[in-house]
Amino acid sequence: MSLTYISHINALIRARVERTPKLVCYGQNITAGSCLSGLTRDLKPGPDSRVINTQNSEYTLIGLGFGLMMRGVSGIYFMKQQDFLLFGLDHLVNTWNVVRTLNPSASYTALSIVVDSGYEGPQSRLNNFADFCSMARVQGYAITNHDDAAIVLDRHLVAPGFRLIGVSQRLFRETPLHFDGAAAADPAGTVVRYAGGTDATIVCFNFSLPQGAGLHRALATSRISASLFSAPGMLIDDWSAILADVGRTRRLVILDDSRSSHKTSQQLELAARRAGAADTIVVRERSAADQVFAPNADTFTVDAAGVARELGRKA
Amino acid sequence: MARPNEAEWALAADVLRVRLSQLLINEGLKRREFKVPVHLALGHEAIATAVSAAMGTPDALCLTHRNLHYNLARGSSLAAEIAELRLETSGVSGGAMGCMNMINPKAGIPYSSSILGNCLSVSTGVALASTVTRDGSVTFVATGDGAIEEGSFWETLEFHKSFALPAIVVVENNGWAMWTKIDERRCPIDIASAAKAFDAPYVRLAGNDVVAYAETLSRLRDGMTGKPGPVVVEVALSTLGDIHVPVAGGAPRYVNYHHGPAPETTLADWPVLRESDADPVFALTQRFDRDRLQALARSLRAELDPQCR
Fold first, then answer.
1. Is B75:B14 a contact under the CB 8 Å cutoff?
2. Which residues in chain B (46-65) have CB-CB distances under 8 A to chain A?
3. ipTM score of the complex?
């Protein structure tokens, strides 16, 4: 069977779970049926650990992880849809505010599927990962490809403290993008660089790296050599790696496929403008016209030719 | 009734200490000494003392915003509680939590929440952890009759039952939620039937007899070893410190105490607030010698007064 985005992530999770002691993996149907479309298939507990199917009580299940943490036990809550995280916002904000002051040594990760695949209808279409992170002031990581999956899951799936991890349902059956070891993360693991260029800097937010990689290839055919970054982190304080690159290329391209009105990408744009790092800034994000609530394909496309034209102009 | 033994006198002393400590805090509230919101629990001393007495060394107690009495019962000094209310580093929680989130993990209180129903769901994780660490702990979680209106109450019972977790859910039923009586706001909820729906044992405590409460809770706690699973304990109590609120053009409205100072409640060496078993201190006189209780109260007052400075 060929490697898919979700089978790759599943393999990384399984390996980590099996070797982690005192860990409780839990969630609805994580050991039954499709196992969340393969995300949690064949999870086996490590020493003194448990893997359990639970009831449908998201508010309580989010709080449960913090209770485990307080008693020195780590937890991973696997969630079928990030929409369900809305039930647990109180715990994300209020409970975490208490627990974080205790500097817990245990790990707690809420790993959810962002249903960005379209055709769900007016509901089950939430694609606002960064908003959860902003409200709770908790770090989140979006997994978009073969390489950042390893970076994010190795560093953050089990680590002291609490974080959110999101995976894209749209990408589940895709062959994951692979950068042959070229991916290099910053120390915080919030920014990853995939390629260097001289004429432009492409930075991809949320789950837009596939579109960014496509743009990177298309610009190359137009003889525009671009650097390629993604920002898996949802809360980023340090833009220095990206701004240094933009300082050389003087042209910044920002892609963001989230639905938030307060995007992480806007902070990069602001930082670049304040630093005077770019002569040209091109932004591609979902427009108000994209906010169609009837079932639809919900795709995020980037017009490479248009971007190339804008890059040719001075700001 | 047999003469109280030493352990029972210790329970009586704790009830008096928790009451006097709260009355002293109330005097500070009247003087506006604290910036953090404070929810006194006058009238809740018997259940807090009994829960503390029933807890084993590894046990955990998850609390609500009304947690002063449990923190005091678990051994926090009045000085440490007042320091916490003043946000000083010598406070129970190092001055980092204030009143509504006051915790004392070393004394078995890992969590208190100011959000209605929040501590219930956290208790599921605390209890589940005991099945991983195998530390033999039982999780106590306190809530109120207002919080059982939240979905988390039902979700929590379901989870505790589904995974046979060693948990004792204590519902402090004072019949009020903030400034409204329960029957002014919602339909009755039969907590015994709720427990039965989850096939969980149910026990009702009433009368504020701290010795009987402690015996019952200890029996329930020890029973968790052989047969884990949640037990629901409903405690009938009155939150004392009630007030009469002026109403324009009408008679003053009687309301139950909710938070802040209890302005009509005064500090006295013999700290009975109501001459009935609605008052846990008065209830002590039905089992213990009144003269000796009053002497004990005076002695405790002498210990506590200096801690307020």
1. no
2. 60, 62
3. 0.95
